[in-house]
Known about the structure:
- The chain is an all-alpha fold.
- The protein is built from 24 helices and no strands.
Amino acid sequence: MQxxxxxxxxxxxWIICIPLMIAAFMFVLDETIANVALPYMAxxxxxxxxxxxxxxxSYLIASGIVIPSVDFFCKLMGRKNFFIFSVALFTISSFLxxxxxxxxxxxxxxxxxxxxxxxxxxxxxxxxxxxxxxEKRAQSMALFGLVVVIAPIIGPVLGGWITxxxxxxxxxxxxxxxxxxxxxxxxxxxxxxxxxxxxxxVQMDSMGFYMLIGWLTCMQIVLDKGNDADWFGSVWVCWxxxxxxxxxxxxxxxxxxxxxxxxDITVFKDGNFxxxxxxxxxxxxxxxxxxxxxxxxxxxxxxxxxxxxxxAMMPRGIGAMTTVVFIGTIGSKINAKLLVIIGLTLLSTSSxxxxxxxxxxxxxxxxxxxxxxGIGMAMCxxxxxxxxxxxxxxxxxxxxxxxxxxxxxxxxxxxxxxVTTLISRKAQVHQNYLVDNLHMLNDNFIExxxxxxxxxxxxxxxxxxNYMSQxxxxxxxxxxxxxxAFKDTFEFCAVSCxxxxxxxxxxxxxxxxxNLKES
Length: 519
């Protein structure tokens, strides 16, 4: 135990971070880079847009299965070997994605890519945390936080630019040279500490692994497709939800009772890890939810194309990058809990600013809240990762990173599903209120119809002009109903950030945690 704690890497930790950050960046980037290219892929494979979403779902399911299994595979293969294997599998499957000529082949290759990429983020986080003492982890987590926050933001922009100027296969081909470089640097720079080397007679928790596959697969399908199927109004959603809950319960029972379990859930006995993980899960839900619905607003209601909507969201990345540099330089001199609280407040503020959007705004009205959201996200993400893991031993870090990233993935999926449902349901509510005003007893309605009819009458007969006028007003009503739904959804995100602030006060600060470890 003592030997494990005293281990230090041979190379400079900042140099070792290069392949780690490259690999983590590739994985996080591929979670969002394919979103804007889905219509092009659907056209290439001659399938509907709805069917093409399996390209995204398959990747999330596969990566979710691997993430909590990271600790087992590290014991089986050695952590360095498993990391290199994961990067290689991710790189090879990226090439296969690029040459896929049918939807089934694309889904299979995306599953392989998810299997390869799922381990990259938790391993990069665990190794980065281990290389520095607790008091210096804030600087290393600043770099890690930059990757986690920036990659999903620039994904749609990069994906839109590549798809528009080249073609969609190149969003996967760009991973090949980057992956080869990461493999080479990993072989040269990474090393296994004594507690992360290959172990003999490693037992596989087969039943737990199967239950994990069943749980995550059923749940991800329900979250992705449930809203389109009217949730529990659909029989298959009810059955899949039942099996997801059943498999989840069996999985955790096995993890509690079995000695050689797939994951070690005793890390949740650590208060910092428990409360810090909850905060990160909600933050991840807000981050991915806003990344999902803001482009819908810009493209569906404001008329932006995929590339321009991505550019409108770029200030979020600028704000995050600026804040990460700030935290990396003087963040260690500021109370970490205070940074998290300020960050959550900024996240909530930016979401409330988005609640006041309308259909006549300029791009600046989108850029400013996104810039503030980027500052808030980075200000939260960097210190909360440090706070949540600083009371854990280095031997626990790989397992804890896997568990934490699994829950963050689930938080992102649940958050995205919630806001998607809110938009569709709230749009119906607002439409129900607004449609009551579209009748011939409403003086404003009659006045507006007459004005439009006067314009259309210059080109068509009076009957057609009246029909076109009322149709135009109905479309405007639908736009306002959808606008109201987006406002309500951003308000939900804002409230979610405020609700978790009290949990931050339950987390021990860095100095107090260090004193406890020394005693």
